[in-house]
Amino acid sequence: MTRTGMFSESTWKPTRPTRPRYLPPHLRSPQNDNAAFLDNVAPELTRSRFYSPQPARTTRGRGRGRGPRFTARRNPNWEDEKFDELEVVDDTLEEANVANNLEAYEDIPVQASGDDIPPPVKTFDEINLGDGLKQNIRRCNYIKPTPIQRHAIPIAVAGRDLMACAQTGSGKTAAFCFPIISGVLKDPLAVTRRGGGVSTAACPLALILAPTRELSCQIYEESKKFAYKTGAQIAVAYGGTPIYQQLRRLEKGVDILVATPGRLVDMVERARVSLGMIKYLALDEADRMLDMGFEPQIRKIVEQMDMPPPGTRQTMLFSATFPDEIQRLASDFLSDYVFLAVGRVGSSTDLIVQRVELVQEMDKRNHLLDLLRSQRSNGTPHSKHFLTLVFVETKKRADELERWLSRNGFPAIAMHGDKVQMEREQALRSFKCGATPILVATDVASRGLDIPHVAHVINFDMPKNIDDYVHRIGRTGRAGKCGLATAFFSDRNMSLAKSLAELMKESNQEVPTWLSQHAENYSAGSAGGWVRHDAVDFGGYDYRKGTASSSTHNNTYDVPATDGYYAAAAAASVNDPTFLSSGDCYAESSNDDYLVADGMNPYAAAPYGYMYGYGSVIASGWD
Ligand SMILES: Nc1ncnc2c1ncn2[C@@H]1O[C@H](COP(=O)(O)OP(=O)(O)OP(=O)(O)O)[C@@H](O)[C@H]1O
After folding, report:
1. Is residue 171 lining ligand 1, measured as CB closer than 6 Å?
2. Which residue, judged by its Cα, is nearest atom 14 of ligand 1?
3. What is the pTM of this model?
4. How far is the CA of 235 from the centre of ligand 1 (A)?
5. Distance 541 CA to ligand 1 centre (A)
6. Could you tell me the CA-to-CA distances from 40 to 23, 48, 95, 392, 480 in Å, in that order?
7. I need a labelling partner for 30 at 20 to 30 A (CA). Which of 38, 251, 388, 445 fits?
8. Which of 1, 8, 17 is nearest to 508 (CA)?
């Protein structure tokens, strides 16, 4: 089936405007970044349902409307003070803005497969998360769940293992944090179990692992907001800082430990943390955690220390990308899991306007300078409202480009793995607050970081594979907001041409003719480059579908993403008591016009659905 066939005529998709000249979002008024961006870069989008004007925020204690901003970290009790300032207010305008932004995700097709899949919800109130957590969800201005939250939270709250894939910036963090916090709060033995003390190990009930220190910190801070005043004890452990402070915190006992793998192994080996009580295990950026770099450590933590086995603990894996090989590996850690894909696995959100420019290596610096100068000459200097994130391939190049940009009048700061942790944190802080509105980074900043006002991501050097590209550009265009991504494509990047062109086409981007040409040439001339699964048709991809043992996972329900879904679900459940109950998977889509795949539930599948082919994915080029 062609992509055109996947969307009914009635399903509006923004067409990309013709762009006579380059005009990055930095040039727009700082009062209204989203609206200005859309007016100037993608004017047609302002007529779309993606668009919601964002008036300057006036709400006391509010940040960018997707949750309170907490920046005063010097005081260890900062979160209490800051959160105390927040009331659960009825700010209808603000709520409407946030909700409108998130409308952008409504039409994304969803597929789930596995046995007895708990059905999705429409609101947070439909799930028994507990009063304290619900109050904090309101405090964070999360009015309604995003699609990944609507689907993943009920599955996780029901105690099921989960492998979940959803686009960057679509709210995966809350999707695993809410069930974990809620589970911990409901556990009557949590307080007695949490361990701690000078001579005893801390015994967390939940472990959240993330690949970078900054991402661990971010998840820790988010979870503290969600667990505010609930009594849940949350701690973070990551390398690059003295271990003793973190150990002292653990002595108070901990329910939820957020950690990077290396530091956690160290703590377990020192017998300061025991994993024997772990009931919930979440891996954020799970494909990265299980790639060649991290897998041995993850195996050690999950299989060779005292963690309860799959089936006894609940395991949740989340990422925006999930290559087939990694899914296969990941299944070692899961038991009878549900596979959930919001959008096609590895797809990018079309909230991000993607541009690709053919720039040879030796011209890159001047090209970048021209780009930044044109932004400046158009009237809007870089500021805290318009941050630019530049990705380069190596640490050395990051330092060099930082110096070169600064020398040429563009304050920039570098962040990479060779900097000491204090410098890394300082760079991120300086970037976030706009003191240094250009961050030059290696892939250490490519995953998970949720930095407000990153309006432009520039791939000065292209990443090694398309999944890394998806994560990098995903630092902009988050929580329903628009963003811009510019890639400098050189002769060295030919192996990416095909997957990049496919990815862009899939997210409704204008693909330059030269790129399509290179894509054709490259795929014709190489049998063995990086191959991603068919990017032309949608298909949330559960690798089990391609295996001989997939017989229990081959039923598919297709239902629409919006209200029709619930109508179809209700009708189906009335007509068919087995609806979503055994050996099922369902695929939610925005499509009204599709073919019914083999084994679909005939009730649910009747008017909606997709046929999709599964191809193989070869994981390659992980850093
Ligand atoms: N239900 C919601 N309502 C309002 N804002 C939300 C909601 N869920 C998440 N957000 C906000 O959306 C932003 C992106 O969320 P998050 O960082 O969890 O995305 P993600 O899917 O994990 O992205 P990535 O793939 O890059 O890690 C955050 O600022 C978060 O506060």
Report:
1. yes
2. 169
3. 0.77
4. 21
5. 22
6. 7, 15, 25, 27, 18
7. 445
8. 17
